[in-house]
Design a protein that fits this description.
Blueprint (H helix, E strand, L loop, with lengths): L5 E6 L4 H11 L10 E6 L5 H14 L4 E7 L2 H4 L5 E4 L11 H22 L5 E4 L4 H12 L8 E3 L2 H15 L6 E2 L2 E3 L7 E3 L4 E4 L2 E4 H9 L2 H17 L1 H9 L5 H16 L6 E6 L11 E8 L4 E3 L7 H23 L4
Parallel strand pairs: 1-2, 1-4, 2-3, 4-5, 5-6
Antiparallel strand pairs: 7-10, 8-9, 10-11, 12-13, 13-14
The chain binds nicotinamide-adenine-dinucleotide and (2S)-2-hydroxybutanedioic acid.
The site of nicotinamide-adenine-dinucleotide (NAD) has 28 residues, from helix 1.
Length: 341
């Protein structure tokens, strides 16, 4: 017997990432080939026509797993019965807008959406925030929903950063991305993030070896490998979003949608192949202040992300993580002063 459809709510569904998400989710890429899905699309009035157009195209695909598509510009309607929320729609930084203005504008979006999730989502709802500043927007939504939804049901997307790090290593080591494991993204989804390879491994001639050793062998020694990591790899991954904006003329779309799909799939279906990265609620792990939504290495057994604990961090790693956490705490303090958390 076919299982009941899972209700997936996508905010900003009429936007670019929304368009890249909808068809893959309806095709079964996110929840698996056996899982029917009901899509609820949330847009603001100005975005409704684009979302309606996408809904018409979804109908024209006749996806066997797609049981319904419903559109609304009312968050309570769109989150009704929501089991998986993808919170994509956000206010981009406009000309002359300061960071505080951006945080305030997004508090006005993610606060009410958190309230709507608390009021009308399914009891087991989980939501991932894609819209920037993603970590702090997740914090805002979680705080607004906290009377009814545990805060650890909210996460933010750093899977794109994780995939970018794997992609850069694969290119440098001339291996397939699937040969690399154990990369971790720590901190904020911003240029302050720390893409960490100190526990990463790569398959070479049938054996697994540390990525740092493989880099040293390729680049002519440990010092050259460290220099490449510090001067090329870390800035390249951390600033990849800006690079994409410069080259494409707008921010990443297909890779962001792919990462959001992988984030939800790993959380719901489990991380059989080792850890991945996601920004989740800190309970003080690795000295990150409790209550921040921070990227960590995470695993899931299908019931939600859990932080991988007990990894050794050297002084370099500690310094970089601390710097990103300082930025996260400053964002939290800014939205706290606005009364949003
Ligand atoms: P976009 O402008 O094409 O689409 C955003 C959509 O959100 C628009 O259709 C807009 O009408 C809608 N929207 C705005 N406010 C809304 C609200 N209150 N409720 C519902 N919908 C609303 O932008 P995009 O390219 O799809 O990017 C969306 C967000 O994702 C941006 O904030 C971008 O910076 C972020 N992003 C994050 C990552 C990541 O890895 N975390 C990667 C890429 C992009
Ligand atoms: C990305 O990492 O590609 C985006 O978060 C960049 C952006 O500012 O939208």
């Amino acid at each position: 017997m076919a299982s009941a459809p899972v209700t997936v709510t996508i905010t900003g569904a009429g936007g670019q990432i929304g368009y890249a998400l909808l068809f893959r989710i309806a095709a079964g890429d996110m929840l698996g080939p056996e899982c029917p899905v009901r899509l609820r699309l949330l847009e603001i009035p100005q975005g409704m026509r684009a979302a309606e157009g996408a809904a018409l195209e979804l109908q024209d695909c006749a996806f066997p797993l797609l049981s319904a598509v419903e559109l609304s510009d009312d968050a309570r309607v769109a989150f009704d019965g929501c089991e998986v929320g993808l919170l994509v729609g956000a206010r981009p930084r406009g000309p002359g807008m300061e960071r505080a203005d951006l945080l305030q504008a997004n508090a006005g979006i993610f606060g009410p959406q958190g309230v709507a999730i608390a009021a009308s989502a399914a009891p087991g709802v989980r939501a991932v925030v894609v819209g920037n500043p993603a970590n702090t927007n997740a914090l805002i939504a979680a705080a607004a929903a906290s009377a009814d939804v545990p805060a650890d049901r909210f996460s933010a997307l750093t899977r794109l950063d994780h995939n970018r790090a794997v992609g850069q290593l694969a290119a440098e080591l001339d291996v397939a991305p699937g040969d690399i494991a154990g990369v971790a993204i720590w901190g904020n989804h911003s240029a302050s993030q720390f893409p960490d390879v100190s526990h990463a491994t790569v398959v070479r001639d049938g054996d697994r070896m540390p990525v740092t050793e493989a880099l040293a062998a390729r680049l002519g020694g440990a010092a050259a490998a460290t220099a490449w990591l510090d001067d090329v790899f870390i800035p390249r991954v951390a600033r990849r979003g800006a690079e994409i904006i410069e080259v494409r003329g707008s921010s990443s779309v297909a890779s962001a949608a792919n990462a959001a799909i992988e984030h939800v799939r790993s959380e719901r279906l489990g991380t059989a192949d080792g850890w991945t990265s996601a920004a989740v609620l800190s309970r003080g792990e690795y000295g990150v202040p409790e209550g921040l939504v921070c990227s960590f290495p995470v695993v899931s057994d299908g019931t939600g992300y859990r932080i991988v604990e007990g990894l050794d961090l050297d002084a370099r790693a500690r310094g970089r993580i601390d710097a990103s956490v300082v930025e996260l705490a400053a964002e939290r303090d800014a939205v706290r002063s606005l009364g949003a958390v």
